[in-house]
Design goal:
The chain is an alpha/beta fold. The chain has two domains: 2-128, Response regulator (Rossmann fold); 137-193, Arc Repressor Mutant, subunit A (Orthogonal Bundle). The chain is built from seven helices and five strands; from the N terminus they run H-E-H-E-E-H-E-H-E-H-H-H. The protein has helices spanning 2-10, 23-34, 65-77, 93-100, 112-160, 164-178, 182-193; strands at residues 14-18, 38-42, 55-59, 82-86, 104-107. The chain has a five-stranded parallel sheet with strand order 2-1-3-4-5, sandwiched between helices. The longest helix has 49 residues, at 112-160. It is elongated and about 80 Å long. This is Antitermination regulator. GO terms for molecular function: RNA binding. Residues 129-190 form the ANTAR domain. Pfam families: AmiR_N, ANTAR.
Length: 195
């Protein structure tokens, strides 16, 4: 059951790996491909910005700071999660990792299984964040519509001396007559009466 869940989580994932070509990394890429990932492995880091990916894995090295910093900025701007691979025994990397702000950090010499678990966890967290962003956006839009309706009712009440139910009834009747939404009618009321 865990294998099926793992396969489902990785199937079709576009993964971009920036790491020196080693036998271990080539084997890791092969394993990810067998699990259903679409892996692109680049090294040295290309001069042009990479194509879209669902997750980026970037090897962090103090000597590569100038070339990896733009990658981190690029992926952050397009909201792609980044897993940094760093030498956990190099204390001088700590300030660089703080500046780069990766979504997760793993040991550079981590075994493939732990990296796959990190990838799945990071992808799930990114998916949850996207769901929360979408929910927040819907709530903000609903709040904006409610505010617009309340403001239009207030203008109608003040202008024509209506009570709240009368103002709402007026807007509802107007919306039905013009076959438009209540929100559109509220905007029209505000535009026409606030001039």
């Amino acid at each position: 059951m865990i294998e099926q869940s793992l396969l489902a989580a990785l199937s079709g994932v576009r993964l971009h790996l920036f790491h020196p070509h080693t036998q271990g990394m080539r084997a890791f890429c092969t394993s990810l491909t067998q699990l259903g990932c679409h892996v692109r492995h680049d090294w040295p880091i290309p001069a042009s910005l990479p194509p879209e990916a669902d997750l980026a894995i970037i090897a962090v090295d103090r000597h590569q700071q100038a070339s990896i910093a733009p990658l981190f900025r690029h992926y952050r701007s397009v909201q792609t999660p980044v897993l940094a691979l760093a030498d956990c025994h190099d204390g001088q990397l700590f300030p660089l990792l703080l500046a780069l702000e990766p979504d997760a950090i793993s040991a550079r010499e981590a075994d493939p299984f732990s990296l796959i678990i990190q990838i799945v966890a990071r992808l799930r967290a990114a998916q949850e964040q996207q769901t929360l962003r979408e929910r927040l956006q819907k709530q903000q839009q609903a709040r904006t519509r409610q505010d617009c309706l309340a403001q239009a009712k207030g203008v109608l009440m003040q202008t024509f001396g209506l009570d709240e139910s009368g103002a709402y009834g007026f807007m509802r009747k107007e919306a039905m007559n013009t076959r438009s939404s209540l929100e559109f009618t509220a905007e029209r009321v505000l535009n026409s009466l606030q001039k």
